[in-house]
Amino acid sequence: MKIRSPISVPNQCFSPLFPKMKIHMRNQTFLLLLFLLIVITTSINRTSAQNTTAYVPAEKIFLNCGASKENQPSQDGLSWEGDVGSGYAPGIQKTVSATPSDQASGVPTVPYMTARIFQTPYTYSFPDIPGRKFVRLHFYPSDYTDPDFMASNSYFSASVGSYTLLNNFSALLTAQALNHDYISKEFSVDISSRVLNLTFTPSPSNKNAFAFVNGIEIVSMPQIFRNFNNFSKIPLIGSTNDMSANQLIALGTTDKTAFETVARLNVGGQTVSANNDSGLYREWDDDSIYINGGVTYPKDPNVTIKYSDTVPEYIAPPVVYGTARSMGPQALANLNYNLAWIVPVDTGFYYLVRLHFCEIAYPITQINMRVFDIFINNQTAKEGFDVIAYPNRGGIGVPIYLDFILSFPNMSMSSQQDLWVALQPDMASKPMYYDAELNGLEIFKLNDSTGSLAGPNPSMKLTVNQGKQKKHNRHFLAIEIGVPAAVLFILLLVMALKRLRQEKTIVQSCVSSLPSSSNQGRLFSISDIKTATRDFSDSLVIGVGGFGKVYRGGIDGGSTCVAVKRGNRLSGQGAHEFQTEIDMLSKLRHRHLVSLVGYCNENDEMILIYDYMANGTLRDHLYKTQNPPLSWKQRLEICIGAARGFHYLHTGAKPSIIHRDIKTTNILLDDKWVAKVSDFGLSKSAPDLDCTHVSTAVKGSFGYLDPEYYRKQRLTEKSDVYSFGVVLFEVLCGRPALDRSLPDE
């Protein structure tokens, strides 16, 4: 094909640049093509730069309520103007400008050290360009002076046009539940008129009620909810069909839908301040409070974030796509747990869940290298998701996002439930790496059919102050009162052999029986256990021991992964070990002891539920395994951790405990390789100061037994020390404690 240049360039045009070079036609053609290449490259770079340019809002108002008109900078660099004389507060003389009675440590001066107080309905009016806006309200629930206004009396509503943002809202109760000193609420509303009216109304149910606000932000925004504007189909979790345009309209969910930001997380990274957002002044919170697991990592320095027209920079800033959280390098461990985030939400609403993805590190550069499934509230949201292979967008450094809608019907006694998002490697795709990753997570509440976004205040039982944490959170997070997000791996297989006769135990008179705890953990029904284990599905069996089978299960709607140990009814010692382990673990709490979640003894079942340990047993990583070998540093840290657990049993527990079955399969490893001592079915209370030992029938595992204990049947703490010494040699040499292939000695 003959390519014709649209520009006729004579030879002499280049001669000043090359005075000593004769320009031939071939050279001229080469230089012309070079020139065109430079022009095209520059154009592409310019287009790329435009795609990565932060959004510039047409309006941005930062109103410091109760303050004079002079602009004041906040600690994040934003310039706030006082509402006095601003033109946004008509008839402001009917309201009260007040200051808080104190300033808690860490509370910014601007905008929280002044407030506008309303004893009757009051409306701020903002001249506006029609379109979608962020409306952010800032509250510092303190007692206010001049005159006195007690925070406990503040109950009010807030509305924008026909949308109810807050109803009978107590900033004090909300802040106490979150354990924060100050809070912010963020909303997104579409304004069709040329004025935005924001109205505060004290609750009429309390004659002393008043409304207040410390700061107001009005920021115009692009249509980040593009799917709603185009009525594109959005997956509806729990339904076999996508949410169609007609369904959206029926829900009142259209391009006029109002949203409240419930959570906005920079997954794997630190909090991103409003001034470091891509022009929309959003704050992205650190996700660590929502999850306890996985590994975090930053963008490879050789990878560039490549925005597009489909995903422009205002969707999420580069700092969000530049960090991630994945499951970790242990493939076998990754297949046995979910990477899950848990966020409490109000019932009675639909929610939009937005997941941000971007492959930012080598070697994940090709299709089918990392493929995973996405679950939302124990429902499959997407199977076999591959970021690199995403249609027309994928590739390393290319950000993408997925939207899902789900409903939380108001069908329970609780006004809040946990929304959880979980990722798990997709085994069906047989990817190169069994792993999953996430860069960002946003959760938005959608207004109901009446145009309301208002949820109830937290109940008083949730407002216990659990410390003096001063961290500010713009969104409705209550993870301190939620369940731990950490999902951990395997409980050890109990080595209780089936016996033909009952155990004969001789205990000295100075030894009392194990005390029964009044707080023995959570009691599960057999139906709960069957749901958690899919009716004891063999596909979920992760171990078999003398006590019975161990299953991997999920409780609390699948949000918490646990190990479920089901007792064998034919085991002669089962009932005794079952009660012993419950009694022991219900009164023991230590970083290096496995935690008992609960139990079930319904229908003659003997079932124990534990935390799920992500990296299995210590034995799984020493020999006869396909797992990569532990480093010497890891071995040392694991042994030190286990030693601390045993030391606590001997010296910290009251009365002290002798474990009696110390071995490498009874030392479990969580997702951070922290050692956890497990299996207390054979444990005994240690002798008190007046006794030197416990006389008892010998229990334990061959190869680890203390010879003196075996010969004399006298149990002391030294018996545990001997067994742990065998464990240390096993870790050092990478060989089993007992080699049955050798001749008997």
- Output the structural class: alpha+beta
Kindly report the name of the CATH homologous superfamily of the largest domain: Galactose-binding lectin
Q: Give start-end ranges of low-pLDDT stretches.
A: 1-26, 33-51, 240-253, 461-519
Global mean pLDDT: 79
Query: Remind me, CATH topology of the largest domain?
Result: Jelly Rolls
Give the gist of this structure.
The chain is α+β, with helices and mostly antiparallel strands and 745 residues long. It folds into 4 domains: 11-51; 60-220, Galactose-binding lectin (Jelly Rolls, Sandwich), CATH 2.60.120; 245-481, Galactose-binding lectin (Jelly Rolls), CATH 2.60.120; 618-733, Transferase(Phosphotransferase) domain 1 (Transferase(Phosphotransferase), domain 1).
Topology (elements, then pairings):
Elements: H1 25-51, E1 60-64, E2 72-73, E3 79-82, E4 96-98, H2 109-112, E5 115-118, E6 122-127, E7 131-139, E8 156-160, E9 163-169, H3 171-178, E10 183-191, E11 195-202, E12 211-213, E13 215-220, H4 226-230, E14 234-235, E15 242-243, H5 245-250, E16 259-266, E17 285-286, E18 295-298, H6 318-321, E19 323-326, H7 331-334, E20 339-346, E21 349-357, E22 372-376, E23 379-385, E24 400-408, E25 416-425, E26 437-438, E27 440-446, E28 522-523, H8 526-532, E29 541-544, E30 548-555, E31 560-567, H9 574-587, E32 596-600, E33 607-611, H10 632-652, E34 657-658, E35 667-669, E36 675-677, E37 684-685, E38 694-695, H11 707-712, E39 714-715, H12 717-733
Helix pairs in contact: 10-12
